[in-house]
Amino acid sequence: PPGQDALLLLKTLQLLWTKKEMKKLKEEIRRGFAGLEDPLAGLLDMLESSSDWKGKGHSLGYYITTELQLWIKEHPALQQSGIKLKKLQARALRILAQCPANLLDPLISIYQLHTADRNYLLEHVSHLYHRGHYKEAAMLSIKLKLQPDQDVEKMCTPLLLQDKSNLVEDYVGEYPELQSKLLQILDTWCEPGFNINNITRQYQGLSRYKPDKFNRKMLSKLVFRLLDRFNVDPALCPNVINQRHLRTLNYLFYKRFVEKTMTWENWTDHVQSTVGENQWLQGHLIELLISYCDLNTAARWAQRFNLPKEMLPYGVADELQKLQIQERVEEAVKADNYEESKKKDYYQLPIPRANIHFLQTWEEMLPCWEKVLQPGQVVGIDMEWRPSFGMVGKPRVSLLQIALKDEVFLLDLPRLLEQAETEGEKEKLPRFIQMLYLDAAITKLGYGMSGDLNSLAATCSALKDTDKQARGVVDLLKVDKQVDVLSSEQSYEDRGFRQPEKGLSLLVQHVLGKPLDKTEQLSNWEKRPLREEQILYAASDAYCLLEIYEKLCKDPASFGLSSDLTESLVGKPSIKPRAKKQLNKQEVPSPSGQQCRGSDKETLCAPAPISPKEFSVVCDNMLQGLGRYLRCLGVDVRMLENEDDHRKAAEIARQEGRVILTSGLPYQTLQSQVAEGRCFSVNCSEKAREQALQVLKHFNVQVSLADIFSRCQ
């Protein structure tokens, strides 16, 4: 009977497969196919009578199929056509409906399914879809490139409900038109008045449905990931962008009125650029101002935006009529007093204002080039960029500060790069920066230099390998990790309410006596002209590095450093560990968009090596990729869900004796709720693999081959 030879061959192959005699198996497959009248029909007979290939991983069915695929390439005359091929394709499609992903490509190739009638293929996929096999329907559509003829919303919605957003990304991956369509659909689901249950109600019997994963927060994250991956214009998603801007507004109000760490001018700059001409955001801004300030302030902003009276809340319209245009004299007096008090409280630049040079043209750059590129020169380097507040894209450096003993140069990077581009000399500025970083005879001081250099590379591609090639670099962040906290309990009675110092500001306080004034840190550094406060802040940030270095070199012992400071810098500290309060090295919480400087925490004394089985962690909800990666390596991992409060991590850590892995702003809260060393901040901008390596290195976890996939995934 037809197919009998194929089934006899299958029994022989099953015996060899069981015995793991792979060489004989391969020979027998090829010999068997050569002896079959119709090898293509024979393969289908085998697959239809066996079910081992339905599971994941490499099965006998998979092995036979891939061998036949290779064998056919060597014997092209065996390819079928016409009615005979159509019958084979119909049988192959029935198998494709049940087979795992690894069998799709070989079967599609063997049975030339790309040449099959498109309507027939679409009908088959539709049949799969209506039987509730949404994942299989999508995967088959991707392999057969059927997406342009399908309804993207219909195909992707059940996948999103099953938390298969990666498959959705692949589904639209090669079709810009579908990417835009999908983003517009997702954006309409994020409209303030939209009821998300309208979507979920249609799929009530859905298997593996994860309603907790299908919410506005998840959709918003997905939209931003797709915008970034496919480089689509964000204007296509006004609802999601508005919600993100509204969160930025709330964050700015928190920084200004709760933390009190932003100046009014700086805050105003950001609020204006966030709200722009958008009346919806302007309305929300007025409501926030009423809540945090008063009717008078809300009315002034309403006047600035020229908002129609019918849009204004009760009381603001009345206040608007009473508003006086001129500024009150008391405000000016108050501002003068504030400036005086700042001088008393914060680090002050010891050089005259005339010695700070803002450079925007190549002619202005030449004296800087000559003075900086001198053998034996010591320079302080810092960079500023506009905080992204979670929007798409990497930060681009707006200002590069280079401090010498007597003067500071502020390089307007966007303007200088633009000028070099128009003059056809775009390599000029990168060459200067490379000469500076590659010259071992010039000592470059920085704080968290790797983050700065990554942003520099994102700004100018010619500088992408500078961090690997740099010579003569002293990163004071590494010294900061070794400096003894000599006087952490200082009196702040005369300083009023202020957030505790951190990062470079804390190091400046410990070494030079006063902290940096960081109120301009989250400035809009792209806006020109820069305000005077921004210029002084930028110059101070670079110049203070020179003073710290000089003081540490003069008397390293009093700061708990090795007598040879360079020895401390290359990671051979000779200081004794002391049970004193650890410095908080987080320079900037990640919601600001500026990268966390200082997440790369090296311990002074490496802990004893442990195996992954002995290491248990709880991953915050922004690090789920890291959690999955560590679990693959055998680590005992618990992960917070997207909607969980970050504080739940501390609760789990205390109850189950786990280490917390987190990133950015939550680190500030969580580290104080567990024992020292039991909370670790990971760089959120890195991929899961790099994050995992960082964690394993820090806690000295030794992974063996046996550990990999030793836990249930």
From TrEMBL:
One of its GO terms (molecular function) is nucleic acid binding. The keyword Hydrolase applies. GO terms for biological process: nucleobase-containing compound metabolic process. Residues 585-597 have a biased composition (Polar residues). Keywords: Exonuclease, Hydrolase, Nuclease. The keyword Cell wall biogenesis/degradation does not apply. Residues 356-557 form the 3'-5' exonuclease domain. Residues 576-601 are annotated as: Disordered. It holds the Pfam family Mut7-C. This is Exonuclease mut-7. It comes from Charadrius vociferus (Killdeer). The lineage of its organism: Eukaryota, Metazoa, Chordata, Craniata, Vertebrata.
